[in-house]
Amino acid sequence: MKKFKLYIILFLSIVFVSVNIYFIEKADSKVSRTSYVEDWKDVTTSNLKKQVMKTGMIAAGEEKNIYFDRAGNGAFEEFLVKEGDSVKAGTPLFSYEVEDRGVEASYVESEIQQLEDEIDSIENHIDDLDELKPVYSPLPSFSSAGDDKNEDKSIEASNLEIESSIETEIAGKELEISRLEDKINHLERQLTDLESEETSISVVSETEGIVKSVSEELNNPLIVISSNSRIAEGTLNETETLEVTEGQEVAISSAGITGKLEGTISSISELPEKEPANDNLSEYRFRVELEKNKEKLLPGYHISMNITTKEAEDAMTVSEKHIIREGPQKKYLFLMTEKGKVEKRTIETGLSVDGKTAVTKGLKKGETYIREPLLFIEDKAEFVTPLQVDELSWKDIKGSDRHTILKNMLLGVLER
């Protein structure tokens, strides 16, 4: 009797499995085109940044070397500043006694003429820049197509950007003229002193900064002035120089800095820091121009720098591991459409950072993709998902007919 019951159970099990296999393999079967989906995610947007992380130090933006030609200038008298002194343009640095006032006057006059020629050259360059400014023409009053309007706006934005860049360069040139005129004024005062038979001449600073060193032995450079402007410095190995280029953005942080500083790569040396060796990667020094800030930055501060080499702003992103690949080039995702169907969608990808990949073509924000599709998921198949009890309401249940409820329950059981 027990064996008979066992045979009956075994027979029914075989029948049940066979019936399910039949429905699954049947070409027009609903079951064969129904996929069970457990894990899915909406397409969102985010900013991706590929960065190179480096350490470095804060340094003076510029060092000005002051020289003294004992053979040509005359006899040195005294230093008028010492190490650590703050100076500005026009501050006397040292004095010397002129041995031949006529020769010195000729030298000063030639210096003045050279500076005036330099100012003329800069003014001509400013005139050339003014001519490069975009010429604006009024937009036509008649209505135009949307594409034409967008094109007009694009041209206008481009012109504004060009004009802003030119204005910035002109402002820099005018500042340079002002600096040269200050130097001419000082030389003219020297010339006046020489003409009045004054034999003691003072050399003044051309820049603002701090006296870094003074050579008491009168070796050149006689005085070194460290400017008040600051830069960041670091080194790149030869592999990193292939990624990092001038103009890239840099975020800087340090224990001595509140928050973060921003800057851009201003230069990368083409020569290695040390003599190249076969067993080590060469290092190349780079400099970062800092944006204006209120931080008191001292040369020697140790810093951390994040250099952004590539960036995708407001990009549609998906997890790299959820992208399905066919061959070296073809990539796709399984999407869950609003019609309850699975769609196999070909996509194109861009930047990948920390497991996230930007999708450049083939997706729209808000669409839903299957995170880890099972092997038997098919394109254009209907899909079912696990019952979300916390999202189920009695109103939804009452709104469904008995046939639909039984059908979905059966499909769910067969899929499991």
Task: Tell me about this structure.
This protein is of the alpha+beta class and 416 residues long. The protein has 3 domains: 31-48 and 313-415, Beta Barrel (conserved putative lor/sdh protein from methanococcus maripaludis s2 fold); 52-60 and 231-311, Elongation Factor Tu (Ef-tu), domain 3; 67-134 and 154-228, no CATH class. Helices cover 31% and strands 33% of the residues. A 6-stranded antiparallel barrel has the order 3-11-14-13-12-15. A 4-stranded antiparallel sheet has the order 4-10-9-6, with no helix packed on it. A hairpin with a 2-residue loop joins strand 18 and strand 19 (356-361). Helix 3 (101-132) runs antiparallel to helix 4 (146-195). It starts with a helix and ends with a helix. Residues 232-307 form the YknX-like beta-barrel domain. Residues 65-218 form the YknX-like barrel-sandwich hybrid domain. It is found in: Cell envelope.
Brief account:
With 416 residues, the protein is an alpha+beta fold.
Biggest β-sheet description: 6 strands, antiparallel, barrel
The counted number of beta strands is 21
Structural category is alpha+beta
- How far apart the termini lie comes to 33 Å
Residue ranges: pLDDT <50 for 5 or more in a row? none
Q: In the residues, how many domains can be counted?
A: 3
**Overall outline:** elongated
Order of helices and strands: HEEEEHEEEHHEEEEEEEEEEEEEEHH
Rg over C-alpha atoms, rounded to the nearest angstrom: 38 Å
Kindly report the spatial arrangement of strands forming the biggest sheet: 3-11-14-13-12-15
How many helical elements? 6
| Helix percentage | 25-40%
Summed over residues and divided by their number, the pLDDT gives a mean of 78
Could you tell me the strand content as a percent range?
25-35%
